[in-house]
Amino acid sequence: MKIKSQLNQIVTQALLDADIPANDIIVSDATRPEFGDYQFNGVMKLAKVLKKNPRAIASDIVKHINTTGMISKVEIAGPGFINIWLNNDWLSTEATNILNDSRVGVGIVEKPQKIVIDYSGPNMAKQMHVGHLRSTIIGDTLATLLTFLGNDIIRQNHIGDWGTQFGMLIAYLEEQNADTEHQNLKDLEQFYKNAKIRFDQSEAFANKAREYVVKIQQGDAHCLTLWKQFIESSLGHCEEVYSKLGVNLTHDDVRAESFYNSELPNIIKILKDKNISTNSNGAECVFLEGSDAPVIVQKGDGGFLYATTDLAALKFRATNLEADRICYVVDARQAGHFKQVFAISKQAGMVGNDVNLEHIAFGTMMDKSGKPFKTRDGGTIKLIELLDEAIIRAKATIEKREDYSEEKFNEIAYAIGIGAVKYADLSISRESNYLFSWEKMLSFDGNTALYLQYGYARIQSIFRKHNAKLTGNIVIGDELEHRLALMILKFEDTLTKASIEATPHTITTYLYDLTTLFMRFYEQNPILKEGVTEDVKMSRLQLAQLTANVIEQGLEILGIKVVDKI
Predict the structure, then answer these.
(1) What is the DSSP letter of 334?
(2) What is the pLDDT of residue 378?
(3) Pairing between strand 38-40 and 365-366?
(4) Is residue 179's pLDDT more than 70?
(5) Confidence (pLDDT) at 379
C-alpha cells in the first residue's frame, strides 16, 4: 500500500486547484498522534516563493483537499503545517482487502532494475571471521528485499583467491600431501599459520612458494590443480557458514578475483588509450581532480592492484551483466578507494552515466570496551564458532517446554540464536559502529529479534485458542485500532524507503514499533474475553492476523525465522 504516493497526489491536486505551484510535494509521517497521521510541511517553502503569509497559503490548500474518501480531516497547525488524518472506513477496507494477500499489500516496483550486489567477499586463505559478518548479513538482506520488491538481483561474492599468499599455501598443501578431505584443511586458520611458519623458517620453501605464485599466474597445470583444490576446500568452509546463517549465497554467485585476471591488461590499455593514466616512476597511475595522491593501477614490475581488479569487475557488471545499479556492501574504511574507482570507471566509459554506483558502507562490530571484537588473546573470532555459541546461548535463554521434542527445541533455539545475531546487526544504522552484547541481543525486552518472535508467538497462541474461520470485515473502533491498521498499511512505504536508502534498520525499527503497538492493542482491546461482540472479536482477530503476517514477512526479508511458541 503506497499511502504516501496517494497522499502526495491528493495534495498536489489541491495545490493545482488553488493555483499554487505544485513542485516536489512530499507528505511525511506525523511525529506524534495529536498531529495527525501525516503532515504536509511544504507551506513555508511555498511562502518564500509566493511571498505570502504561510497560514493564508495553508488555508487555500486545505479548502481544496478532498475529505470524502481516503482523508477524514485536515487541520492547520503552527505557522502553516497541514496535519492530515486518514478515514477509518478507508483504513478498514484497505486492511480487510490484504488479509489474504501473501504479499501483505506490498506491490511490485513499476520499473524493475537489474541490480548487482557485491557482498561477503571472504579471503580464501582463511576461514570466515566476525569481520565478514556485517557485509554478509547486510548484503543478503538488501538482496532479499530488492528481490521481494520485484527487481532482478544478481548476487556477487567477490572472493579473494589470487595473490602471493596462495603460492605459499599450495606449496604447503603439496608438501603435506593434503587433499580436500585432509584433516589439515579442516582448520584453515591453523593451516595458514603452519604454512607461514614454514615460509619464514625455510628459505627453500619460501623460494618454492614464490616460484608457485609465478606458475599460478602463468597457468601451470600442476599449480592450478593444487590452487583449485585449496579454493574448493576453503569455499566449503564459507558455505557451511552461509548455511548456518541462512544466507542465500551459492557457488554460482562466486565471482572471484581470479575471474578478472585476464581482463586486467585491457583495463590498463583503455586507461592509456583515453589518456586517463600516466606513467610515474615506472608505475601506471591515474591522477584524479582534487586528490594529491595518485591511484596506482599497475606497479613498475607489471603487477596489478585491487583498483585494477575492481575496475575490471565494474566493467564486467555494467557491460556483461547489464546492471542498472551496482552496490558494494563493504566496510566504511574503504570509502576513499571506492570513490576513486567509481570516478575512474565513469571517466573511462567502462560504466555508463546511467548506471548508479553505490558504496553501501558499514561500521565495525565492537566489544564492550569499544574495541574491535576479538578473542581474549587478541585473535579474530571464527564466524562459525560465534554462530554455534549463539544457538547454545539461545537454549539457555528459553525454557524447554514439556510439549517440545528435542528436535523442536533445537529448531527454536536455532531460529532465536541466529535471529538474534542477525537482528542485532541489522537494527543498527549500518554506518555506525555497534557494541556486540549477548545479553542485549537475547533479551525479551527492547528492539531485539526475540521480542518480535515473542510477539509473533503470542499472536499464534490467540489463534490456538480460537481455532475457527475468520469472518466479516475489519472495523476500526478506536484510536488504538486506527493506529494499528495504519501501521500495517505503512509496510510497503517502509520497504520502499529501505530499498532506496539501503537501510535495513528502517525495517527493524518499523517491525519493533508495530510489535510494540500490537502489545498495547492486545492489552487494552480484549479479543476473546466474554462480553466482546462477535463482530468486534472478528475485527480484532483479523488485525492480529495481519500484524502476524507483516511480522513474518518482515523477518523473512531480514533472513530471520519466526516461531509459533517460545
Answers:
(1) G
(2) 55
(3) unpaired
(4) no
(5) 63
Say yes or no: 25 and 147 in one domain. Answer: no
User: Count of CB atoms within 10 A of residue 51's CB?
Assistant: 6
State mean pLDDT over 48-77.
94
* H or E segment and range at residue 462: helix 449-465
Residue 375 predicted with pLDDT over 80: no
Residue corresponding to grid cell 589439515: 184
Say what the pLDDT of residue 420 is: 97
Query: Do 128 and 82 fall into the same domain?
Result: no
CATH number of the domain residue 497 falls in: 1.10.730.10
State the residue for C-alpha cell 560465534: 386
Q: For residue 319, what are the CA distances in angstroms to 66, 81, 313, 513?
A: 48, 48, 10, 42
Residue 284 lies in a domain: yes
What is the average pLDDT value for the chain, to the nearest integer? 92
Question: Residue 126 to residues 131, 139, 160, 309, 362: CA-CA distances in angstroms?
Answer: 12, 21, 10, 20, 22
* pLDDT of 255 higher than 50: yes
Give the model's confidence band at 180: pLDDT under 50 very low, under 70 low, under 90 confident, else very high.
Answer: very low
The pLDDT of residue 182: 47
- Same domain (yes/no): 337, 312: yes
What range defines the domain where residue 24 resides? Answer: 3-86
Other Cβ atoms within 10 Å of 284 Cβ, number: 23
Q: 396 and 516 in one domain?
A: yes
Q: Please count the other Cβ atoms lying within 10 Å of the Cβ belonging to residue 320.
A: 8
Pair 154, 218 in one domain: no
Asked whether 40 and 13 are in contact (CB, 8 A), the reply is: no
Q: Are 50 and 57 in contact (CB under 8 A)?
A: yes
What is the mean pLDDT of the segment spanning 24-35? Answer: 89
Concatenating the DSSP letter of every residue in 205-263 gives: HHHHHHHHHHHHHHT-HHHHHHHHHHHHHHHHHHHHHHHHHT----GGGB--GGGGGGG
Boundary of a domain, candidates 305, 333, 365: 365
Domain count, the chain: 4
Greater pLDDT, 546 or 436? 546
> Do 546 and 95 contact (CB within 8 A), yes or no?
yes
Q: What are phi and psi of 397, to 5 degrees?
A: -80, -40
Q: Which residues neighbour 506 within 8 Å (Cβ) at sequence distance 6 or greater?
A: 494, 497, 498
The lowest-confidence range among 140-149, 202-211, 225-234, 524-533 is 225-234
Beta strands in 311-432 (DSSP E): 325-331, 356-362, 365-366
280-294, 406-420, 421-435, 505-519: which has the minimum mean pLDDT? Answer: 280-294
